[in-house]
Amino acid sequence: MTSERTYHHGDLRRAVLAAALDAIGQAGPDALSLRDLARRAGVSHAAPAHHFKDRTGLLTAVAAEGYTLFADALAKAPDLRERGVAYVRFAAGHPAYFQVMFRPELLRADDPGLLAAKARATEELRAGVSDLPGAARGEDARLTGIAAWSLAHGFATLLLSGNLTGPVGDRDPGEVFRVLAGILFEPPTAAGEPTTPESS
Fold first, then answer.
1. What are the C-alpha distances in Å from 67 to residues 4, 21, 163, 168, 187?
2. CA 139/CA 122 separation, integer angstroms
3. What pLDDT digit, counting tens, does each position of 100-114 carry?
4. How do residues 45-93 score in pLDDT, each as one tens digit?
5. Any residues with CB less than 8 A from the CB of 3 and at least 6 apart, and which?
6. Structural domains in the chain?
7. Exposed / middle / buried, residue 118 (Cβ in 10 Å: 0-12, 13-18, 19+)
8. pLDDT tens-digit profile of 150-198?
9. How distant, in Å, are the alpha carbons of 19, 26, 27, 36, 41 from that of 31?
10. Of 27-31, 96-100, 114-118, 187-191, which gets the smallest average pLDDT?
11. What radius of gyration, in Å, describes the C-alpha atoms of the chain?
12. Measured torsion, CA atoms of residues 102, 108, 111, 115, in degrees rounded to the nearest 10
């Protein structure tokens, strides 16, 4: 059946992207097909290819849009721990984007829009690393950043795959991550050291 809907150029592109996000949310990026997206969006079979050329181009556009939203979310966080909280909340709130963004084998690596969005998100992730104890001691700041990234990304991935259903329950996953980051990154009180001025 032919759709009765008509679109302006930008609206059609948006409709295909929205349909792609819906399909990815239901079955993951590996099951995505342009023909199915056209049906979902109510457009001609040729429309997705006209805007994105092929499946890789479409997923690249999804990833670029995801990285832009991701960078916006990270930029609002005042420090590295809160960037981790924003990271987890982004994954929980935008699982379809998250599933595509970190799958380089699905994307066109040299796409200018993707490169620009990813670079901005990377800079936001790196911001605040100098405040961590490892970086303050002169250790490799890049490795310190990878450690922090691994914690946030690992938590987010476990969350989206259903492996943290029990531990997180109905709680805000960002709040759970904030507690976890505090446990791992706040130095413990040394044995025998007073914990308050009154105890000395």
1. 33, 14, 24, 26, 32
2. 20
3. 999 999 999 999 999
4. 888 998 899 999 999 999 999 999 999 999 999 888 899 999 999 999 9
5. 42, 43
6. 8-52 (1.10.10), 55-185 (1.10.357.10)
7. buried
8. 999 999 999 999 999 999 999 999 999 999 988 887 655 555 455 444 4
9. 13, 9, 6, 10, 16
10. 187-191
11. 21
12. 20
Structure tokens that stand for 27 in this block: 């079955």
DSSP for 36-50, written as a single string: HHHHHHT--TTHHHH
The helix/strand/coil state of 182 is helix
Q: How many residues does the chain have?
A: 200
Does residue 6 or residue 66 have the better pLDDT? 66
Structure tokens of 82?
A: 């809160």
Tokens of 98: 């998250």
